[in-house]
């Protein structure tokens, strides 16, 4: 698969694009401003020339004024050798033209229609001229109005603008390359926190899962990413821990019974024995093996439930009906032990029947095992604001408060003195129950005191099953 362009390349290209657009825009604005400035400058110059002409033509000059006027006209031409003056009548008669060069008489006449002086430019004999056109009304008997035009050669402006454009033509590409280099440097510097995250992420290994990415020392835009990656590492660490616990718990739990079985078998094999003796040892081995196989299947079930690997189907379940069914199952045992079972309340939830039954049956079997003869085991169901609360309680010796949270740990077995019978449990029942309840988005907690032990399960009324 083709790799998308690197972030540094993208940012550099963007930088180049933006800076060249800005430079071109700026050059264009400057070009227009300089052009405008030249027009204003020329207009100022031409204005004074037109005024002299206007004075000359508006009324017949007095005799004594003539030398002064002559002098100012001479002055005009001396100060500006490129100066041209034209005077024509509105019907196209050229009365005065200071030069042989052609001038756009028609355009000038059209411009002179307006009252205010107008600026015009034209090309003649490979030169460009800019002129100011003004219509005047002289106090002469036979002429209504005259069109006066003063023009100057603006080749020097054009040469300046040419040089200016050529400079920009060279400068803009150089500046663009330079800003590209700057952009590349800025992008590399700006992206350095990403490299920090990469280095830290590279340091995370199976044996160093506790390493976390820096959330405080990266820019704000990356805090979210670092946080999410850290959350992912938390989840991975937790899953990894569970997996390691699973193997170590399993090995630990199987080591004693397997070594007992081995010793027992070796002792029996050390000399020949009677058939009855062999039978007795085999029967005891079968019992031990039965327990071992229960531990293994419980552990596998727990691993599946905790990792959400099972994809159970869900259905509407009436909790009171499930409890009634379970009571039927435990009835004989309860009667035998002289324990009374009672239930109250009703509620429906959405869940997996087998999983919930297994969870509730674990709680009931624990309760029965820890109730003193003649005691009560009660199941109470309550529906409170969208949450269904199911309590399984039994009378019996209280569990010390510090032990309560540990009851749900794998292979945790409390003080056997609290148990009514001496058949030791595996210690997985509550761990399995908790995993099953969590798989239904619920919670479970234990309370104990005043001779009563309670396990309180809370389930959402319509518990959504987690996606497998
Ligand atoms: N109702 C209860 N009253 C008093 N103690 C309890 C009660 N339920 C559980 N416990 C204590 O919690 C411990 C863990 O219970 P859990 O169900 O996980 O294991 P277990 O019953 O010993 O074995 P398993 O259920 O796997 O056969 C028990 O050993 C017991 O000490
Ligand atoms: Mg149990």
Rounded to an integer in angstroms, the radius of gyration calculated over CA atoms is: 52 Å
Strand content: 15-25%
State the end-to-end CA separation: 30 Å
What is the number of domains? Answer: 3
The biggest sheet, with number of strands, parallel, antiparallel or mixed sense and barrel status, is: 5 strands, antiparallel
H/E topology pattern: HHEEHEEEHHHHEHEEHEEHEE
CATH class of the largest domain: Alpha Beta
Show unreliable segments: 463-468
Helix share bin: 40-55%
Q: Within the CATH hierarchy, at the fold level, what is the topology of the largest domain?
A: Beta-Lactamase
Count of DSSP-assigned helices: 10
What's the overall average pLDDT, rounded? Answer: 86
Structural class: alpha+beta
Give the beta-strand count: 12
The shape is rod-shaped
If you had to describe this structure to a student in words, what would you say it looks like?
With 468 residues, this protein is α+β, with helices and mostly antiparallel strands. It has a five-stranded antiparallel beta sheet with strand order 2-1-5-4-3, sandwiched between helices. It is built from ten helices and twelve strands. Strand 3 (118-124) and strand 4 form a beta hairpin. Helix 1 (7-58) packs antiparallel against helix 4 (155-190). The chain folds into three domains: 7-163, Beta-Lactamase (2-Layer Sandwich), CATH 3.30.450; 239-306; 315-460, 2-Layer Sandwich (Heat Shock Protein 90). It is 53% helix and 18% strand. It is rod-shaped. The model is unreliable at 463-468 (pLDDT under 50). It binds adenosine-5'-triphosphate and magnesium ion. Adenosine-5'-triphosphate (ATP) binds next to helix 9 and helix 10.
